[in-house]
Amino acid sequence: MTTAPDQAELLATAARQLAPVIPLLTELGERFAAAGHELALVGGPVRDAFLARTSPDLDLTTDARPEQTEALLRGWADGIWDVGRAFGTIGARKGELTLELTTYRTDAYDRTSRKPEVAFGETLEDDLVRRDFTINAIALRLPVLELVDPHHGVEDLAARLLRTPSTPEESFADDPLRMMRAARFVAQLGVDLAPEVEHAMTERAASITMVSAERVRDELIKMLLAPDPRAGLSVLVRTGLAEHVLPELPALRLERDEHHHHKDVYEHTLTVLEQAIDLETDGPDLVLRLAALLHDIGKPATRRFEDGGGVSFHHHELVGARLAAKRLKALRFDNDTVKAVSRLTELHLRFHGYGDGEWTDSAVRRYVTDAGPLLTRLHRLTRADCTTRNRKKAARLSRAYDSLEERIARLQEQEELDAVRPELDGNEIGAVLGIKPGPVLGRAYKHLLAVRLDEGPVGKERAADLLRAWWAEQPESADD
Predict the structure, then answer these.
(1) In 3-state terms, what secondary structure has residue 466?
(2) Domain that holds residue 470
(3) 338 within a domain of the structure (yes/no)
(4) Which of 314, 407, 443, 475 has the fewest Cβ atoms within 10 Å of its own Cβ atom?
(5) Residue 139, Cβ density class (10 Å: 0-12 exposed, 13-18 middle, ≥19 buried)
(6) Do residues 91 and 100 lie in contact, with contact meaning Cβ atoms separated by under 8 Å?
């Protein structure tokens, strides 16, 4: 049995973590106290301090009303804004720090629309009980740094357990998005769901459809960018939430035939995601992680049992690209992300035609040109997609991809392949053929681009000769 942590020791840990901002918080707390008001640091910053994490935000709560908060900040803060005034929040900047001060609240939710009716509260304890999870319902009273933890959030942090201050059924009925936040905290903080929390999430999973796609998307992004997105995604699937927000993921749990002719696509997908994360070099890459998560979602629709006992998924990359775009659009992702993830899904099998290096230079050029600015991500996705337990096969695939990357680097150095253009520009093409800008000139341009990809640099004179030969075969040339 885990021994409850010593409160004084945990408070000391939090104080050490908060040390850089303690002088500022103390000064502000004394300013509010002198005016007869309470002030407390609350939520994420306190939770993160106990976890020895640095929080980017300083969230505070007070019994002061917004107009009183604004008056107390005036003359102290370097900047003040009130865009959250309707919810009791006044923002402020002091030096390089950003603070948000919110009046105690006792929200009453309309459970048919999930929109809260904002009502100001009178006590810190009433404010804490409305919060989503006990680990976020911890406060430090200022300026004395008194710990306020009526729902034993510090103990839950020590036990890495996610519980709710009120019953989970009531909490999730108030705001179904909290279920997505629960999965996100599993991925982000390494906590486990309390049994009653997981039960309530499973029972109320369908209510997530009340929440806007944008809010669901934002939680999904935070989960995917967390240290352990697999854990959070597993929660979504296990509780049934994924059926409503990302149904393509649980659909990957295909029934396997008795001879196990194909991998468990769901487990394979989560492994690919983990392996893609391991290949990141400049921090979390949302596009890469989404592509790893969605790259095989075309398999359920394309699975066929062949006469010889095998299983095929012909063109699943093309079907998957369309499904990925559809899902991401439904979740209100931006167009650039939709296009990039869809394109990576479409291209993720292209390498498997490379074999032992039989590709011509032309094929390598087309691979690079088709990938465009996504080439580095395609490299990582393709490598991550190898989850075979056969070491010899894995080593062979790795060597083949090493060979392809070396050839790409060599060709890029020789030809600046990442900026391939025909050797004649539009003006030069028009001059050679005696035609004006328009669709015909566009076709001529594409023809010379194909020549460039197939043959490499041929020089302007040779390009002009090839262009004339092509033109002689076009019906438009007979009209000249």
Answers:
(1) helix
(2) 421-479
(3) yes
(4) 475
(5) buried
(6) yes
Verify that 400 and 427 share a domain, yes or no: no
Domain boundary among 397, 417, 437: 417
Indicate whether 138 and 15 sit together in one domain.
yes
Residues 22 and 147 in one domain: yes
Does the residue 95 lie in any domain? yes
C-beta of residue 344 within 8 angstroms of C-beta of residue 374 = yes
Residue at which a domain ends, from 116, 140, 159: 159
Provide the number of structural domains found in the chain. 4
pTM of the model: 0.82
Under 8 Å between Cβ of 51 and 189: yes
| CA dist 434 → 319, 347, 444, 479 (Å) | 43, 38, 12, 12
